[in-house]
Prior knowledge:
alpha+beta; Alpha-Beta Plaits; Beta-Lactamase; elongated; 17 strands; five-stranded mixed β-sheet; five-stranded antiparallel β-sheet
Amino acid sequence: xxxxxxxxxxxxxxxxxxxxxxxxxxxxxxxxxxxxxxxxxxxxxxxxxxxxxxxxxxxxxxxxxxxxxxxxxxxxxxxxxxxxxxxxxxxxxxxxxxxxxxxxxxxxxxxxxxxxxxxxxxxxxxxxxxxxxxxxxxxxxxxxxxxxxxxxxxxxxxxxxxxxxxxxxxxxxxxxxxxxxxxxxxxxxxxxxxxxxxxxxxxxxxxxxxxxxxxxxxxxxxxxxxxxxxxxxxxxxxxxxxxxxxxxxxxxxxxxxxxxxxxxxxxxxxxxxxxxxxxxxxxxxxxxxxxxxxxxxxxxxxxxxxxxxxxxxxxxxxxxxxxxxxxxxxxxxxxxxxxxxxxxxxxxxxxxxxxxxxxxxxxxxxxxxxxxxxxxxxxxxxxxxxxxxxxxxxxxxxxxxxxxxxxxxxxxxxxxxxxxxxxxxxxxxxxxxxxxxxxxxxxxxxxxxxxxxxxxxxxxxxxxxxxxxxxxxxxxxxxxxxxxxxxxxxxxxxxxxxxxxxxxxxxxxxxxxxxxxxxxxxxxxxxxxxxxxxxxxx
Length: 538
């Protein structure tokens, strides 16, 4: 029999059964109960809803599931005990307490046999004890159980409040719950970032699955995280959409009522910590973005930069490095939610204080750099791989710049690393990290202008050529590109296009006529090459 002792720092409050069960009633000596048939395994210790006094031959329509039937057997003259038991079992009752009386001083053997065959507990109560005593005892046990739940709620609330006031964060909140219930727990926000965990190890795919479940309206009670792992989901957030979820890596059906109550209470406290965490992150990100604006503004605000760097733990008078990161591909997928946090966590784990700012096209990190420890070229691929893994895969590219000696020199490496990152984003392959100086100069020239300028340049030069191809289903642009790709070699170009050299000469003569550029002159070739590249992804 399970009993709970509720204590605080002052005194022991009480000792009482955890819940209403047949075993708890049997252990009350005032009831003078005797177990005649214990029933199936665990039946005596299973939770009982209430007790129901009846003498009807068929009590089934009136008995609720998990209730105990109290009866004196006045129905014995009209119904066979086996039929009575069958009707009680169909109703889902938890057992039968047979009340002895002067006229019936023994529990009928037929009733005991029927209960034994059905696996239903059968108890008998002495002649001297009325059924009202059983009812009073059941009410007292349930009242104690409610008191237990309330005291647990208050005690747990005090511990959760203390954890938050000490600044223990979400991890401290989970530690309070784990001391009471050894459950695998994690807190994941709606962007798939893990804010804390205790006894659970979620991979990137599982975090994404949790975030997708959290986006439901309303979120489900249970989520499939993959690989056969199901988790009970308890939303965290005060108003509107949930900001995060407390995950318990157990199906809801496997959680006890006490565990569910504790999880729900903990989720409410976590909402305070998540709101605080998000507010701090928002402030830090705003300050980081402002720092980049200060650097790029030049002399106007350069005096403010050192102080802002110190606020982030970065020494403005020591060596500084700048990295710009983005996902390769289309512009609208340059960054992902949680990317700045992933960069920050990696740098902190490597012992590098940094300012990390997220924009729509890249994430920029300005960090203290230890000379001689490593080079940016060897460090950047590790950073890219870690961010990619954290955010569920994808090609992350990193633009580099040579480290500088202090905050006063940050403007150039900041601009160059971001330009290099933009160039790398458009390339289909090659290294994931490169510096401004390592990239092709023509590409940097093109990237220094916006897309509208590049299109205007290409359209002005190649427009007549493309119009000719559209009108005649021609191949002048294809021919020109092949000629430049083969470094102006006539035979190699003709072979690649499967045409005669004379046909190639005629086509390129038409290109000269339409564009005003002679492919035989180096300067004109450069113009044509840049025009072709200006509208290409890489």
